[in-house]
Fold this protein.
Amino acid sequence: MFRILPFLILEVQLYLIRAFFTVEVPQLRYIAEYGSNITMECRFPVDGQLNLKDLSVSWAQKELEEQKSKEVYTLQKGEEDLKSQHSDFKGRATLLRDKLNLGSSVLQITNVKLTDKGSYLCLIDYRGADYKYVTLEVKASYARINVQKISEPEEEELILTCQSEGFPLAEVFWKNEKNLIVNESVNTTYTLTTDGLYNISSMLTFKPNTSENYSCTFWNKELNAETSYIFTLAQKSVSHVGRQSLILFIIPTCVIAVILISALIIFLKRKSLSKLHAKKDNKRKYPWLHKEDHRDLTPQTQDLIMANVKDSSDCTEV
Ligand SMILES: *[C@@H]1O[C@H](CO)[C@@H](O)[C@H](O)[C@H]1NC(C)=O
Ligand SMILES: *[C@@H]1O[C@H](CO)[C@@H](O)[C@H](O)[C@H]1NC(C)=O
Ligand SMILES: *[C@@H]1O[C@H](CO)[C@@H](O)[C@H](O)[C@H]1NC(C)=O
Ligand SMILES: *[C@@H]1O[C@H](CO)[C@@H](O)[C@H](O)[C@H]1NC(C)=O
Ligand SMILES: *[C@@H]1O[C@H](CO)[C@@H](O)[C@H](O)[C@H]1NC(C)=O
């Protein structure tokens, strides 16, 4: 009886391990930026060393409104099996193999598209089977705002346009310096791009009589995120500031230049004067010294004469 008991306990433990093979998810909900890469994870128990041959992993996407599911990635008995992978994920879905040893099934999807949103089933078969769901949301912030500024001098009107793409649909606000929302004469329209993004264009038409700055803001209500572009209309004051700073720059530059030039002139004058003096002195002391005077002699002879003269001058000084 006492011998059987430990065996019994072991049996029960094994049974429990098999029965309670559970897949768990550290994170239920993921949010990915359009065009970015995302990894989603589910965990399964690995007792010691992983035996890859016993492991099968399946990731499938189930779009919220649709009943059908798309195969994202399959690992069949340790081997990648992409025969029935859905074309939407071709070349974009992989399983991070090095994480499997730790009992972690990490699915990576690159270049996330809007159609990637939905629920993802993570099914693990490894000495027991279980599955869990995680959800993926995809957002696209209106990060790049393209602008246009057209002035109509005849009507004294200015037309400002802001255009950007993103998801979900954003509202566009126009503001001036005092943060007053300019409602009138705003025309905002949108179309859908082939990728399912909203392509929003907003046009503000107005008669500018102040030198205020105007801005357009794309407000993504669902994500509570916003991006803005500020139009600088204050041309008068800008060019004024520009001229002032130009003057501030030119004057010191001129002063410095004048000082430098004068210094150079003085320096050159002094140099030529001292040379002249030296020449005159030399001429006075040694009238034969000048090279011009020995134009018909070879340079060597000239140098010889100079050397001799120097020697003799040294002598005379001594
Ligand atoms: C996404 O992953 C791919 C392949 O691993 C890589 O080339 C690319 O630079 C990544 N993109 C971003 C935005 O991290
Ligand atoms: C807004 O602009 C679109 C085209 O950009 C135009 O078809 C529509 O008539 C405009 N709406 C108003 C109220 O001006
Ligand atoms: C978005 O709409 C603008 C016109 O409103 C168009 O010029 C631009 O090509 C569109 N962009 C895309 C990606 O559809
Ligand atoms: C011009 O600005 C003044 C105040 O600065 C305002 O009272 C007036 O309505 C503006 N005119 C136009 C045409 O916007
Ligand atoms: C308009 O914007 C420019 C540049 O951002 C800024 O230097 C200037 O002070 C703004 N003008 C007003 C009236 O606030």
